[in-house]
Structure formats: C-alpha cells, structure tokens
Write a structure and sequence with these properties.
334 residues; DNA-bd_dom_put_sf; Multidrug-efflux Transporter Regulator, Chain: A, Domain 2; 2 strands; DNA-binding transcriptional MerR regulator
Length: 334
Amino acid sequence: MLIGDVARRSGVSARMLRHYESLGLVRPTGRTEAGYRAYSSEDIRRIFHVESLRSLGLSLREVGRALDDPGFRPSELVADLIRQTRERIAGEMELLTRLRRIGAAGPADWEDVLQTVALLQGLGAESAGRRQRAALSSGEESPVPVEALVEAVLNETDPNVAGALRWALERSGEGGLTLLAEGLGSPTAEVRKRAVQAITEIPSGEATTLLRNALTNPDLVVRRYAALALGARGVADAVPTLIDMIVEGANDVDAADALSALAADPASADEIATGLVGRLAHGTVEPSARRRLTQALADIPGTTASRALADLSHDEDRAVALTATYIRKLRDAR
C-alpha cells in the first residue's frame, strides 16, 4: 500500500508518516518498481500501535522504546503517566481556581486583573511578610476574592499573618462564612481552630448563629473559642461551656470575664451563679477548680452569688474560705 493510501485509511498524514520513518518508528518494508514506499499489513498495524500509545500521552521516543525494547515494562511507564497526568490536572485546576477568583473580583480593566493577580500571588508567597502585606492591602480599592481569603486564613501558620488575614476577611463582609463553616468540619484540628477564630471576628447575626452551633462541635477547642466569643456577644447559651472552662483551668480568666459580662443581665446572673454553685458542690471537683469557681463568683451580682459566698467563707478548704471572705469584703465595700 502506498503512503497516500495509508494516510487516507489510517488518518495519519503523509508528512507524519515520513516523520515516523525518519525516527525509525515505522519503516515501510517494501518499495515499488518505481521506488515508492510500500507498506505491508504489519507496517500498518505498527502505525496503529504508535497512534494508540501516543493517545496515552507517550512521547515518540517512549513509543519507540515500548515497541522495540523486549525488556520494556509497561507497568512502570503507565504509573509514570498517571503521575504526570495528575500533576497536569492539578496545575490546570490551580489555574482554573485562579481564573475564577479573578472573575469573582469583577475586574473592570486589565489593570484590575493585574492587581488581583498580584494580591493572589502575595497571599501565596513563601515570605510571611509578603503574605501579611497582601492581606493588609486588601480593601475596597484592591479587593481579594473572599474565597482566596478564606483559603489563606484556614492554611496560615504565622500568627501575625493570620491576624491580618482575619482582619481582611472581616472587612470583606459575610461572604466567607459558608466556607468558614465548612472549615469547622475539617478533619484537621488546626484548620478547625483557624475557622472558628475567623468566625469570632465577624460581627454579624449569621456569624453568631455559626458560633451557637459550634458549641456542640466535637472539637473541644472549637467549643471554647465559640463560648468566649458568644459570652462577649451576650449569648447565654455559652454559660455551661464557660463554667467548664473555669473548672478545667482552660482560659479560665477569660471565661470568668465572659461570665461577668453576661451577668450584666439579671436573668443571666442567677443562672450563672446557680451553675457555679452547682459545680462547687460537686464532690469530684479538685481544690484548685473550687478556688477558681469561687473567684468567678466575685463579679456575679445577685443574692444567689452572695449567699454562696457567705457559705463558702466557712468552707473546709481554707483557701476557698479565705477567697470567699475577701470577695465578700470587696462586694460590701462597693
């Protein structure tokens, strides 16, 4: 079969067939009397083999090796092709994400596009200083897509950069809350922690709702951050977790301050005092925890707290009794 016929039937151009011949991939086994290339059925079968292997992403050199090396192991090459394909897909997905974020920023001209690209590159820079500058430069005139900000917040390890990113995210509004809520369910503890920290700095009703839900999160750290933030927002749902924090000595001073702020509401004051007294009466609470609970009663107004302090001034634990007596004197002097 002449080269023109082979090209028509195989779909491989005559030019490419000549290229294959120059590389030694497919050499026509015969010649006509006039000296034209003549391809046998075996030659044509080899052409289809070459095209099949090329469709898998093999280079022509790899194709030649696969067809001619008796010791060739296809499993190794296929594994390498899988790796290369995954890397290529990852690169394409990264590009797609970048393009979508640029589109989300609503650029009006190429200057806006270049500015957004620069900010995105800054957020992903190796230098912590450059990442921080990118976060601080985000604003109305140079907005960073909220999706990129959330991703940066959830992955940032430098505390200074993280603070700048949370600030930028808070300025961007509530758009990132859905993504931050997903972060609360991450399998990585650090990501969950960063997510709740970011939510606590967004002063909105939707953020408060997320924090209420976070009080039942399986992650103890998430629950504690949520409780402290809710206490500052005047949400009484946080009281049980805040009392637990005092008992456990986990940010107990901050927890006591949050309870004090909540106690400004008379209805909450009685609930808080009752909760503290209930834990004091629990037989398994350690002495150090009883002292912290007693100290927490200091800024809780109302008769329930006052009666509890009067009783505690005669407590068997001398440290508790002295603490309660001192607090009573301070309250009487007010």
